[in-house]
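User: I would dearly like some help making sense of a protein record. I have put the entry right below:
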Amino acid sequence: MVSACQVILHKLEVVINQCLYLVQLEQFVLLVITALMDFVFEML
């Protein structure tokens, strides 16, 4: 019974870590896009 709970908790932890990674990745992509837009507007 305890092992089943541990497995479920571990799977939840993995999912949460993946979600956090995706959120960080999204923020990084947004930063890159805004930086590129600023660069393009300066070139024009």
The chain has a mean pLDDT of 93. The chain has one domain: 1-44. The longest helix spans residues 2-43. The CA atoms of residues 16 and 35 lie 29 Å apart.
